Amino acid sequence: MYIRFARLGAMTLVVAWFSAAAAQTDPLPSWNDGPAKQAIVAFVTDVTREGSPDFVPPPERIVTFDNDGTLWIEQPIYVQFAYALDRVKALAPQHPEWKDTQPFKAVLEGDMAALGAAGEKGAVAIVAATHAGMTPEEFRQGVKEWLATARHPRFGRRYDELVYQPMLEVLAYMRANGFKTYIASGGGAEFIRAFAEERYGIPSEQVIGSRIVTRFERRDGKPILFRMPQVDFVDDGPGKPVGINQVVGRRPVAAFGNSDGDLEMLQWTTEAGKRTLGVVVHHTDAEREYAYDRQAHVGKLDKALDAATVDRWTVVDMKRDWKTVFPVRP
Amino acid sequence: MYIRFARLGAMTLVVAWFSAAAAQTDPLPSWNDGPAKQAIVAFVTDVTREGSPDFVPPPERIVTFDNDGTLWIEQPIYVQFAYALDRVKALAPQHPEWKDTQPFKAVLEGDMAALGAAGEKGAVAIVAATHAGMTPEEFRQGVKEWLATARHPRFGRRYDELVYQPMLEVLAYMRANGFKTYIASGGGAEFIRAFAEERYGIPSEQVIGSRIVTRFERRDGKPILFRMPQVDFVDDGPGKPVGINQVVGRRPVAAFGNSDGDLEMLQWTTEAGKRTLGVVVHHTDAEREYAYDRQAHVGKLDKALDAATVDRWTVVDMKRDWKTVFPVRP
Lengths: 330, 330
Prior knowledge:
alpha/beta
C-alpha cells in the first residue's frame, strides 16, 4: 500500500516536472494555443530546421516589425504625436506668438478639430517646431525624458510600458532562432531609437523609420549632425519596402504589421514564391486595449485585412490569441 | 656531449615553437611593424580590455571603412565607373542613337576629354542608362557577372581581387574583437553589395553608400523595387556622417579612409572627446600599386592629409607599412 502510494507520488512528480519543463520551453507563453501561435511556431521551425526544403540560412533570416499598433499601443493617438503636442506646450512660453498662430493655437487650446483642419501643412509645422533644430542625440534625450514622465490617458502608465507582451516574446523567440529583428515604422527612426534597445532589445542599427533632413555641420567648433525642419523620407506604405532595402539590402522572410501602412511591406515579403510569414495584428479587444480596423482614424486596417485572405497572412485576433496584452512588470 | 646537444636541440625547438605561435597570433601579418600597425593594435587593445578607462561596450564598437582606395583599388578610374563605361558599350547595339549623342558618343569612342566635358550632367545620364531601369537584385546580378569577366588594365586581375590584403586583416581583426564593420562609401550601396559579403565578409546591411531613387511597384503582378534614373542620396564628404546616422544611428569609434571624401566622416568619428581611431591610407607605392595624393583626379587626398596632423589620425604609408598589397590567392 505504502509502495503504491509512493509510486503514484513519484509519477505525479514526474508529470509535474514534464509540465513545468514544457511551460519553461514554451517560447510564447502569453499566446493562447490556436492558429496564430501555431503559424508562427510552424514557420520558425520549418525555416530553421537543417535539411528542411524551406531552410533559410541565418544571414537571410530577416524579419521586420511595424511599431505603432504592432509592438506598442497607438491609440487614441500615435505616441509620437502625443510627444509632439506635449513639446509644443512645453516650448510655448518661448513662443508667445503661438497663441495666435495655427496649428500651435489649436494644440495649446486642445482644439483637435482646428488641428485636423490644419492638415499636412500643420503637421509639418509641428514636426519642424518639435523635431528639428537639434542633434539626433539631443532629440533622443528629449524623448527619453518625456517617456519617463508622460502617462497614457487611459492606462496611466508610461507609454513604453504599453508594449505588447506577446510580441516581446515573438521578438525573443525569433532572435533565439537566428533571426535579425528589424523595426520598419512609419514613425521617426530617431524617436524609436530612444527606447527600442531597452524595451525591445532592438539596437539602433535595426530601426528603420521616417527621417527628416539631417545635415553635417560644425557647432562651437565641434562636428555634429543637425536635424532640419524638412521631411526627407516617409517610411510608410510603399515606402516601407524602399526603406528596408536602403538599410538591410535584403527582402525579409517574415513581416508583422497591423494596418494599411504595412500592406506593401507584407506583400513584398510574402509574395516571393517561397516559404514566408506575414502576420497582421487585429485589434479586437476593447476591454483590455482597443477594438478597431476598417473605420479607424489611427491604424486603419482595411486593404491589408482583405489582402490577408488573398495572401494567406496570419491574422492575430488580439482578444482570442493573447493571454495578456501588456507586461505585468515591464 | 650528447646531453648538451640534446638540450640545445630542445631549446631550438622551443624557440621555433614560440616564433610559430607569435606568427600565428599576429592578427596583422601583412603589416610591417611600425607606428601604423602599433596604433591600430593599441586602439583595439585599449577599447576592448575590461576595466580600461577607454573600454567601449560591444554594441558601440562601430567602425566604418571607405571602400574605393581604402579597401580596394580606385585607379586609374573608380571601379564602378569602369563598370558604367563597359555597360554603355554592352548596351550600345540597342541604342544606335548613342553614336551621335553625348556623353555616350564619348564613351563609345573612348574620348575621355569629351566625357569630362559632359560634366555632372553627363555622369547622371550614364548612371541613368546603366544603373536604373531594373530591380536591385537584377542590378547586383549584372555587377557580379561583370566582375567575373572584367580585368584591371594594369594588373590583369579581376577588380574584386584587387582588394588590400592588409585591410582584409584589419576587418577580420576588428570583427574578432567585437567590432561591427561597416562600409561607408561614396560609391553606390547596391554596387558594393554585389561583392562585399564574399570579398570583405561584410553583409548587405552593413554597406552604406550612395543611392538612386527606388520605387515600390508591381511588375507582372509581382511586388518589386525598381531603380529610377534619379540620384537620391550622395554618401560622400559631409554626406558620410549623415548616411552612417541613417543606417547605424550611432557615431563610430573608428574610421578608415583615404581621400578628402572621408574628411567629415573622420572628423565626426574622432573629434568626440574620447578614445577613437582615425586612419588615412596614403597611396605611396607607385611600384606595387599607385602613388597619389594632393593632385590626384581620383581619390584626391589634400585637406584630409592636413587634417590628419591636426586630429592625430594614423597615416598609413602603403610603401612602408604594407608587406603585401593584394592577396596572393584571393
